[in-house]
Design a protein that fits this description.
Layout (H helix, E strand, L loop, with lengths): L1 E8 L11 H7 L6 E7 L2 E7 L13 E3 L4 E9 L2 H10 L9 H12 L9 E9 L5 E5 L8 E4 L3 E5 L2 H6 L9 H9 L15 E2 L4 E5 L5 E5 L15 H18 L7 E4 L4 H13 L5 E7 L10 H11 L2 E7 L1 H14 L8 H12 L5 E3 L4 H5 L16 H9 L4 H7 L10 H10 L7 H13 L1 H13 L4 E3 L5 H9 L2 H5 L5 H7 L5 H4 L9 H4 L3 H12 L1 H6 L4 H9 L12 H14 L4
Parallel strand pairs: 13-14, 13-16, 14-15, 16-17
Antiparallel strand pairs: 1-3, 1-9, 2-3, 4-5, 5-6, 6-7, 7-11, 8-9, 8-10, 11-12
């Protein structure tokens, strides 16, 4: 619902709010409705607001509670804020607004850093204690809302986007070689706390960070999922179907909390169609849905309107088909790159960007089907893991998911960027070795739902929707639903070609054509099959002076890719030239190098 940033000094100096003005301007698209700033002594906070709950000025931010001595900048939505508010009123707290932002302040005062355990929602926030000079940074369980940090011995800066931190100046913008390894190996995912830039880190999901006035920090992780059958040993298939549908109903209903209309991004796939069905069942009046399609390119179709139309007609939604021709697609790629907090190679990022631009003209909030594949085992690399012994799971996962091996990666990098050790495999191995996750499939689902999901699909949706002042809510990432799904035996999730338990739970609600169709994606053929002007721009970016000075990639490898721009694909079928070109285009758009 917003964007925020700020600074705390640790060197005895006063904060300089004027240095945060470029940061606030960078965040304006996330909060086009209003802006605010606050500064006192060593601390300063800035905020841009998208009005979703409490549309009056009493919900303005940064929110200052003089009685409690707390100042808050908040992004997201606490879906159970009304229940928490009544609890806090019963404990003697007085409210001056009807916003969920104020509930966060009072909850922190009452329960301290453990207040986050009571929140059901998506959020990131910075809270400053005026009496102690202590700064609290927090992020929701699944990392739906982002929070980037630039910390030096002199000060801590933070913001909702990475470009906002860079805009404030003083950031080490050199490329992090380990993050580069992850980007080119771990399917363009850079796990927290790293980002592609050395000087910027991101707060991990489900984490509260306490920053003391002298700059010392301590992190506390407040939520995790074991991926074991504990507590659910006696459940049978029918029990699982009923339980999953019940939790999903709850998740969808929670996300209708707003003082504005809530629509749905309807791709026509199982996940978004199920959200529409449950909203219709819930009785939401005037439900508005949106689908996007592109021109055919390279022999590949660019829309799935036949499915989204079927769902819209079935449930009587006010449906909008958004058709994008190639002439409009190419300029949008640059706007999408500018909206990325980190380089995101998935071609559907541009689809989300264009879709969000159109949707924002009609509603301020949408629900989306993101997350179901990672939670209910919908991807192609899960079934092969079912027969793999737990001790061989890391190799099997890397073979199925990694874009290239460590040796292949070093062969495409210039010598100064090569790593002796396989950082990406080591990261996966460490994650797989954590307690819990009884099977190879469980281990992969835990990793994907806690890392890959956060730093690919979820980040993509947040960045592209918020670039147009549109809030996206993701019911499949409701923590109660995720906990239940994690306990579900893998065979129930892998059934019917993946997401079996979800498909079975959907049969009483959706047409068979939607449930049994081949899995689809947001198709953007012009990126998967580079040619014409877009290919020229990728070529130009890779040959630019900044790219030559950076010297990331072996020149011979780049020449081979450019000679046959659509021939080389990563393990999962992404265009290898686009992966490299997108990184350079993003760095150059950010003004790095």
């Amino acid at each position: 619902m917003c964007g925020f940033g700020g600074e705390c000094r640790h060197d005895g100096q006063r904060a300089e709010p004027e240095l945060l003005t470029p940061m606030q301007a960078c965040l304006e698209p996330r909060g086009p409705d209003a802006g605010g700033a606050w500064a006192q002594g060593p601390a300063a906070l800035i905020h841009r607001r998208l009005k979703i709950i409490d549309l009056t000025d009493t919900g303005a931010q940064p929110m200052i509670d003089d009685e409690l001595g707390l100042v808050l900048a908040f992004n997201g939505c606490i879906y159970n804020y009304r229940t928490l508010r009544q609890d806090l009123i019963g404990r003697g707290y007085r409210f001056f607004s009807t916003s969920d932002t104020e509930v966060v302040i009072k909850a922190y005062h009452r329960w301290g850093v453990r207040c986050v355990e009571r929140f059901r929602g998506m959020f990131a926030f910075a809270l400053y204690e005026r009496s102690t000079g202590r700064l609290i940074l927090a992020r929701d369980r699944l990392g739906i809302k982002p929070l980037y940090v630039d910390q030096t011995p002199q000060r801590t800066r933070f913001a909702s986007t990475l470009p906002a931190l860079v805009a404030a100046g003083g950031v080490d913008t050199s490329v992090d070689p380990v993050a580069l390894h992850h980007y080119l190996s771990f399917h363009s995912v850079v796990p927290p706390p790293r980002t592609i830039l050395r000087g910027v880190r991101k707060l991990p999901p489900a984490t509260v960070r306490v920053v003391e006035p002298d700059g010392t920090t301590r992190d506390g992780r407040y939520w995790d999922v074991s991926f074991t059958r504990a507590g659910h040993e006696t459940m049978e298939a029918g029990d699982w179907r009923a339980a999953v549908l019940g939790r999903l109903r709850q998740a969808v209903q929670r996300r209708t909390v707003a003082d504005v209309d809530v629509g749905v991004l309807l791709s026509g796939g199982l996940d978004s169609s199920l959200v529409v069905a449950l909203l219709a069942e819930h009785g939401q009046p005037g439900l508005t849905t949106f689908s996007i399609g592109f021109e055919q390119h390279g022999g590949e179709g660019g829309d799935e309107f036949v499915y989204s139309d079927l769902v819209a007609e079935r449930f009587g939604t006010n449906h909008h088909q958004i058709r994008i021709d190639t002439a409009r697609l190419e300029p949008a790629i640059h706007h999408a790159i500018a909206a990325m907090s980190e380089p995101m190679v998935s071609h559907d990022v541009v689809a989300f960007h264009l879709l969000s631009q159109e949707v924002a003209q009609h509603v301020k909030v949408v629900q989306s089907g993101q997350g179901a594949d990672e939670v209910f085992a919908g991807y192609s690399w899960y079934p092969p893991l079912a027969g793999v012994r737990r001790e061989h799971a890391v190799d099997a996962y890397a073979d199925a998911f990694f874009d290239r091996s460590h040796a292949e990666l070093n062969a495409i990098l210039q010598p100064q960027w090569r790593l002796d050790d396989d950082a990406s495999r080591a990261f996966v191995a460490e994650h797989f070795d954590r307690p819990g996750a009884a099977t190879a499939v469980d281990a992969a689902l835990r990793l994907d739902s806690q890392v890959m999901l956060v730093d690919d699909p979820v980040k993509r949706v947040d960045n592209m929707t918020m670039a147009w002042g549109l809030e996206a809510r993701v019911p499949f990432l409701d923590s109660d639903l995720v906990e239940l799904a994690a306990s579900c035996p893998p065979e129930h999730k892998l059934a019917d070609g993946g997401k079996g338990i979800l498909k079975q739970a959907s049969r009483e609600l959706l047409p068979a054509e939607i449930i049994d169709r081949t899995k689809g994606y947001f198709p953007v053929p012009a990126i998967r099959h580079l040619s014409g002007r877009l290919l020229d721009e990728v070529t130009t970016a890779l040959a630019a002076p900044a790219a030559r000075d950076r010297g990331l990639f072996a020149e011979e490898y780049i020449s081979d890719l450019l000679a046959e721009p659509n021939a080389t694909r990563t393990t999962l079928g992404a265009n290898a030239l686009w992966q490299l070109g997108l990184l350079e285009m993003w760095l150059q758009d950010l003004g790095v190098g």
